[in-house]
Amino acid sequence: MNRYLAGKNIQSMCDVLDLGLEQVLSRAEVAATKEPISGRVFTAAELARVYSSVIAEYKGDDVHIRVAKGFVGNPHGPHEISFLVSQNLGQALNRISHTFSWIEPVAWEVRQTPETLEISIKATHPDFPLSGFVEIADFIYLVETCRFHSGQNLCARRIQITSAVPHQDEIAKELGCIIEVGDYNLLVFDSSAADVPLTPNHPFLGAQIDKEIDFRASQISQSQSFIDAVIDSIKQNVMNDVSAASVAKSLSLSKRTLERRLAEHGTTFRKVLDKVRYELALEYLGYSNYTLAEVGYLTGFTQHNSFLRAFKRWRGETPGEYRKSLSREPRTLPV
């Protein structure tokens, strides 16, 4: 899924922060259209620019707090419906984990163990990198919304984000636990939180939403099986001058058919290749065994400077700068 139905979310964000929508979109260099904002779709890159524009227009250092709290109980909020139709918190989180990716290139992963209920957030597109701001805003929203719809003062058991944010101690006090900074994000409740009842709940509306989730999941699954096959072929041949023609041949397709089917799924061979190389580069840069030149070679670049330029385009920083920014020591591959 390469376009996201984020128009209503952006409008709500501007309303909460008292910002002009047209000014935000103009600053983000997103073209105006006659289509109502509620029905507009955005690419990952456009969304990243819009959110950066919102922060720049707002100017305050509490934007993550204002947005998160402004969406709590907001009927136009992106996930309010999941809380309104669910019987308990676990059910609401499960619905959000399926619907979040319709709005942003982000996946919510919900896991339950005998002791904990855990939520983590993962970016699904290189043009939309996560930050501590995004992570803590989602976690504030989630805790406060759980309290709003349950009538209980639920507290987090543990919170970790990938970079420090302004007002971190103040937020920690409100959410009920210390906020740690590490190499991944995580929100943890006690396992019993999954059974906390929510009111009101509307079973009929919940059933309708679940039907839509199932339908979209089947569509994504059909799309993803083809995309996954393309990705697997690229990974197997990334160091061998991989091309659309070579991938098409490995899948018993013509180059033209491959490009047509990718277009039907809203992407291109170049975009998929970029995504694979980007994700491989991030993985290899986490291992201190590899020099930057070796990482470039392993991701399919015959010229080191080409790798440096590509990585700068993907992340806005050099591979060396990214490696230095890792909050943990780079891992060492076993020999």
What is the topological layout?
Elements (H helix, E strand, L loop, with lengths): L6 H11 L3 H7 L16 H15 L4 H9 L8 H5 L4 H15 L2 E7 L3 E8 L8 H19 L7 E4 L6 H8 L3 E3 L4 E5 L12 H35 L6 H7 L4 H10 L4 H17 L6 H7 L5 H12 L3 H7 L10
Parallel strand pairs: 3-4
Antiparallel strand pairs: 1-2, 2-5, 3-5
Description:
By secondary structure, the chain is of the alpha+beta class. It is 55% helix and 8% strand. The protein has helices at residues 7-17, 21-27, 44-58, 63-71, 80-84, 89-103, 132-150, 168-175, 203-237, 244-250, 255-264, 269-285, 292-298, 304-315, 319-325, and strands at 106-112, 116-123, 158-161, 179-181, 186-190. It has a five-stranded mixed β-sheet. A hairpin with a 3-residue loop joins strand 1 (106-112) and strand 2. Helix 9 (203-237) crosses helix 12 (269-285) and helix 10 (244-250) packs across helix 11 (255-264). It is globular, with a radius of gyration of 21 Å.
Strand order of the largest sheet: 1-2-5-3-4
CATH topology of the largest domain: H-NOX domain
Distance between the termini: 39 Å
**What sort of overall outline do the alpha carbons produce when their principal axes are compared?**
globular
Helical content stands at 40-55%
Helical segment count: 15
Major β-sheet profile: 5 strands, mixed
Please give the radius of gyration in angstroms.
21 Å
Low-confidence stretches: 329-335
